[in-house]
């Protein structure tokens, strides 16, 4: 991870903790207004301190442990029966907003890191469409694309077990490919998967930055293209192609992901032939290999319009 972004993120996490702890101290001070609570709390704390003192001086604890157990029980019962909210409200239950657990970044930290890089690198955000929206008609998703929805909902529900490693959705502009991709991405993110959505344009900026060994957010995003559970590259064919860069990186990312059992979805306005012309036969056969791939062409003709009228 890049030091500059790590220190920026560490500062954000530290602020989150300070806020959560300040909020707790306000609620705790309010609870201490209750005399009985104050007594129970003070009794528990002084037993804890005494136990600590004796143990540091290697003195016998006597009946202190039992007394502390009783005091803790009385304290806990009082807190529950009076509905006192005196826990810190951390956003992450795993790391308590520290961002790190045993010197390793927490999942919440990695997500925040990726968000920070995307923001710094001006990467297009993931559109906010969901399978639950129920407004496909309104969004202009054509009927052929709509027919793919149940299959991809199943793919998301069964993500870890799905043998599908590569999907190629090709079709004319305006058939609703991006809407479908966004539904898939948002569903999987909700299910805790690490999903990276990039437009082909952003993808080509990232690989160029990596190729030029730039020490910036774009280049730093390169690893996420390899490591994520699902990589979505939207609108292939519209990005600038850099000689000796774009195609080579494209092949190596696709190869790496397929070889590591990771899933990738590509969308494009290009037909199969146009795709081969632009990216080559090898890329096409890797992406559309029947053993693990699903490829489809969604034409722009709205099926509703060609149904005979009754
Ligand atoms: Zn966390």
What does this structure look like?
This protein is of the alpha/beta class and 310 residues long. It folds into two domains: 3-104; 121-302, Rossmann fold (3-Layer(aba) Sandwich), CATH 3.40.50. It has helices at residues 3-31, 35-56, 64-81, 107-120, 136-139, 143-146, 149-157, 177-190, 200-211, 217-220, 222-227, 246-259, 272-279, 281-287, 303-306, and strands at residues 100-101, 104-105, 166-171, 195-199, 230-236, 263-268, 293-298. The strands form two sheets. A five-stranded parallel beta sheet has the order 4-5-6-3-7, with helices on both faces. Strands 1-2 form a two-stranded antiparallel ribbon. Strand 5, helix 12 and strand 6 (263-268) form a beta-alpha-beta unit. Helix 2 (35-56) packs antiparallel against helix 3, helix 7 (149-157) packs parallel to helix 8 and helix 12 (246-259) packs parallel to helix 14 (281-287). The longest helix is centred in the first third of the chain and has 29 residues, at 3-31. The model is unreliable at 302-310 (pLDDT under 50). The structure holds zinc ion (ZN).
């Amino acid at each position: 991870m890049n030091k500059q972004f790590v220190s920026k993120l560490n500062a954000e996490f530290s602020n989150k903790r300070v806020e959560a702890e300040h909020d707790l101290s306000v609620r705790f001070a309010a609870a201490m207004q209750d005399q009985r609570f104050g007594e129970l709390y003070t009794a528990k704390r002084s037993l804890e301190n005494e136990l600590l003192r004796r143990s540091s001086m290697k003195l016998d604890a006597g009946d202190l442990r039992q007394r502390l157990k009783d005091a803790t029980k009385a304290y806990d019962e009082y807190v529950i029966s009076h509905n006192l909210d005196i826990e810190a409200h951390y956003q992450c239950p795993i790391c308590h907003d520290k961002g790190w657990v045993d010197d390793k970044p927490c999942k919440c930290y990695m997500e925040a890191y990726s968000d920070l890089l995307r923001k710094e690198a001006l990467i297009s955000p993931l559109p906010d469409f969901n399978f639950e929206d129920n407004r496909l008609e309104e969004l202009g998703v054509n009927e052929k694309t709509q027919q793919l929805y149940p299959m991809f909902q199943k793919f998301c529900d069964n993500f870890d077990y799905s043998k599908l490693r590569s999907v190629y959705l090709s079709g004319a502009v305006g058939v609703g490919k991006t809407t479908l991709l966004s539904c898939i991405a948002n569903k999987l993110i909700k299910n805790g998967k690490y999903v990276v959505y990039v437009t082909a344009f952003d993808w080509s900026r990232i690989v160029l930055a990596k190729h030029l060994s730039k020490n910036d957010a774009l280049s730093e995003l390169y690893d996420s293209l390899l490591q994520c559970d699902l990589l979505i590259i939207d609108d292939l064919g519209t990005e600038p192609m850099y000689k000796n860069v774009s195609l080579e990186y494209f092949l190596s990312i696709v190869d790496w992901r397929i070889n590591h059992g990771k899933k990738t979805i590509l969308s494009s306005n290009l037909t199969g032939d146009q795709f081969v012309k632009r990216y080559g036969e090898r890329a096409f056969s890797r992406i559309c290999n029947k053993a693990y791939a699903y490829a489809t062409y969604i034409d722009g003709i709205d099926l509703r319009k060609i149904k005979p009228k009754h």
